[in-house]
Amino acid sequence: MSVGYKSIQWNRQKLIYDLILWASVAAYIAIFMAVTKGIDSNLDIRGVQIRAYGSAAFLLLHVILSIGPLSRLSPKFHPLLFNRRHMGVTMFFLALIHVVGLNLPGLPLKTTGALTWYHDFGNLDPLVSLFVGNSHYGDFIQFPFEILGVGALAIFFVMAATSHDFWLVNLTAPIWKALHMGVYVAYGLLVGHVVLGALQSNRHPAMTVAVGVGLVWIVGLHLLAGSREIKQDKATLSPSDDGFVDVGTVAEIPDNRAKVVTISGERVAVFKYDGKISAVSNVCQHQNGPLGEGKVIDGCITCPWHGYQYLPDCGASPPPFTERIPTFDVRLAGDGQGPVEDQRIFVRAIPNAPGTHVDPAVI
Amino acid sequence: MILSRRQVHFYSFVGLGIILPIVFIAGLALRPNYDMQATDAATDLFAQAGFATGEDGEAISSDSFTVARVPIAAETLRLTDGSVVLDLTPKKSLPVVDVLVYWDAGSEAPEALGDEAVLLGNLAGDARRRFEIPAELQGQSGQLVFYSQAQSQVVTAAPFAAEMTQ
Ligand code: HEM
Ligand code: FES
């Protein structure tokens, strides 16, 4: 972790992002209600609220799912990563309001949810009615689309509940990431929820086109960014007899930046700073961000995602922080001969234990 | 470790990229046709249930009352068949259960429902409701009594002038 970055505390930037986020959500819902009412003033306000909140959550999910691949494609989108978790939690609450409504004592804003509006007028408990009201579980087109929503909401709940850094640390980043990949399942379920639900009765072409464009955008973007990554992983370098890998020349790396190479299937970031070369794992301990896309700031490798910092020669965060990443032995070939910039960098394929000090290669 | 995560990520999107377009296209192609046009039968049923869905008629007069703090707009109309109706539109649903609307004679608001009170209909929700005023009551001044059937008590009564139905 870095001295400058406070993982769980609020800072000005986060507050600004959150205010923008919440203002946009509020504006979207207000405009949705006003426009729908304007089109047909006879519509029941409660049905409109359910749609306003459902579509707000679905739209926000599209934004959230775009940030990952976009920031793989261009670093310009990195600032959005900063607040992605707050977006996720906001999205969960929008979806929850879509389902159970909002009726808190003391809060003037009251809305009806799908559960009360569609399931509370019979002689069954609304929750029972939700699961048995439509029993065409074996049918495609008549499938109870609400159940797909239930699945997605359950996944979002687990994600929102474990979104705090406390869980990230306790579950470890890889498990946490795997858990959070459940969002792709949830996204798939929701496309089903909308196609088999709202699109069945709402035949306006605009709605169909919006859902279709969203689908092509999300899947296309992820496949584009993903195939680039896979290509890079395929270009894996293998060590020679002495266990070292030729990763290129000093000239290829800009000052205070890194070159990312794949050695035996894992990515290594080779940094050049202060006339020295050090190699560390490319994987940030926080949320596995790509360290090699970050810079050396104040003598520390700084993660481009949330700003965790590591000392390049030992892979440890500066005190008082305790994160450690694996380091790699490095050496330069052609010492003293030819132009300095043409010296080739060799990295040992087998990593050292996290936090192990390695003498940097001096150019 | 991280490599495998990236592969899971990529292949889950390959999976979604195959399944979701199929769901999308099949969901649109197989959409059943539900006949959802409102028929005349529905309009009749609404009229029977006391909703003002039919003709607007010729306005006679208008007034407003407050029942259990909810403002109610009242308008009387003469329809083409000669009948006189009272339309009531509450601003929002009344916070009282099972409200019945009666016409009662007299100039004072009654404490209890009189034996001679004439039931006009029931009032619920915030839609425009229509009550037919029987011929013998037209042109008579009296009271509109709002009575909660569930609570067996008069909620409120408002004077109903003779001019309203003349
Ligand atoms: C227990 C879970 C859920 C239930 C019972 C439920 C129920 C419903 C119902 C009854 C509709 C109206 C369908 C129609 O208009 O024909 C609907 C629409 C919708 N729901 Fe859900 N839902 C659930 C979860 C979710 C979640 C988690 C999301 C998104 C994050 C979501 C997003 C939507 C969207 C985008 C629509 C379409 C809105 C529109 O017509 O504009 N739902 N849902
Ligand atoms: S700081 Fe969050 S992933 Fe590196």
Estimated structural class of chain B: alpha+beta
Number of strands of chain A: 11
Number of helices of chain B: 2
How many angstroms does the end-to-end distance of chain B come to? 87 Å
Class inferred from helices and paired strands of chain A: alpha+beta
Number of helices of chain A: 12
Multimeric organization: heterodimer
Mean pLDDT score of chain A: 86
Task: Pick out the low-confidence regions of chain B.
Answer: none
Number of domains of chain B: 2
- Number of separate structural domains of chain A: 2
Alpha carbon gyration radius of chain A? 25 Å
The CATH C-level name of the largest domain in chain B is Mainly Beta
Shape of chain B: elongated
Enumerate the distinct ligands.
protoporphyrin IX containing FE, FE2/S2 (inorganic) cluster
Question: How would you describe this protein?
Answer:
Chain A is α+β, with helices and mostly antiparallel strands and 363 residues long. Chain A folds into 2 domains: 222 residues; 119 residues, Rieske [2Fe-2S] iron-sulphur domain (Rieske Iron-sulfur Protein), CATH 2.102.10.10. Chain A contains 12 helices and 11 strands. In chain A, strands 2, 3, 4, 8 and 11 form a 5-stranded antiparallel beta sheet that branches. Chain A has a 3-stranded antiparallel beta sheet with strand order 1-10-9, with no helix packed on it. Chain A is elongated. Helix content of chain B is 22%, strand content 35%. The termini of chain B are far apart. Chain B has 2 domains: 34 residues; 116 residues, Sandwich (Immunoglobulin-like), CATH 2.60.40. In chain B, a hairpin with a 4-residue loop joins β7 and β8. With 166 residues, chain B is of the alpha+beta class. Chains A and B meet through α9, α10, α11 and α12 of A and α1 of B. The complex binds protoporphyrin IX containing FE and FE2/S2 (inorganic) cluster. Protoporphyrin IX containing FE binds next to α2, α4, α5, α7 and α10 of chain A.
